Amino acid sequence: KMKERLILIYGNNKVLIEEEQKRYESLFLAGRDAELCVQSFNMQDLLKFSQEESQRDQFLLTLQTPPFLTDLQIFILSQLESIKGHKDFIAKLADVLALVAKSADTWIIFTAQINKEQELPAALLKLIKASGKVHKFVTYDDAVPDQWCMNRAKTLGLMLPKPAALLLVSLAGNQLARLGSELEKLSLLLPQGATITQDDLLKNVHGGTESSIFRITTSLSERKLTPALETLDQILGQSPNEHALLFTLIARQFRKLMQISCALQCHTAESEILKSLALHPFLGKRLIAQARLFSNKELFFIINQLAKMDIPLKFNAVHAKQRLQHLFETICKH
Known about the structure:
alpha/beta; 5 strands
């Protein structure tokens, strides 16, 4: 049994936070009935709807009250970041947590959708670190969650080799909710115990915005201006705020092409290029063919243009479409 009674799980990846929360719940419950043992509170809602101090005091009393129908209790307190600034409430909650940390029958799991610890109340963070555990799940735009995909496929009764996992991420994007949905769909289409193949993925995985962005990066990499512009109109017509993500993925694509072009110039074997960049053979060979369409000088010029556009485009959505259209023309016609 874990002696730590206070658990903090935070980050910007909602799926990983929820998975870790469920893992702890399962660990603490050890087969007990969750309906009897688990209570959940959204801290933002608590502060919003419990205007009277007596209601908040009742909540704090609930945390201290021993379980009645079972031998343990688990509290899930979400959106912990929302209480920052409520000094009186934080002080009272800290006193309660100090008692819970010494209890034998109560666990509290905190979750927060934040990137940095500094976004949490310092007093509570210090107490949780001293008496419990902290888990951070912050992911970035260029994350490649291939191992997560392999693990999720296994829980669904499928085998997903690493090359296929990389292909899945390339086709569907790196958002875990989207990847999980695609794997669940495959689990319904394929027999239990099946190994997911490249053909399975190419036939059945049809991404949303991520798929459209994939078409844009492919068109630009092959210097095909018209389909790139058509897909740009489609994406920004449906999701006007996707310009920053689109730009980020285009920049990542051309950095890869630059790496491949430099490696080819140094006469590096294609197999070594695929290995060093962790590329699926299907996608890797396509990227190598695309890199051959540009000279090193052209790729350096494109990378330089991307660097100049980075901040103006990300922080000025008004002219984002025109800037991207100009960028596409520069790439395809330079």
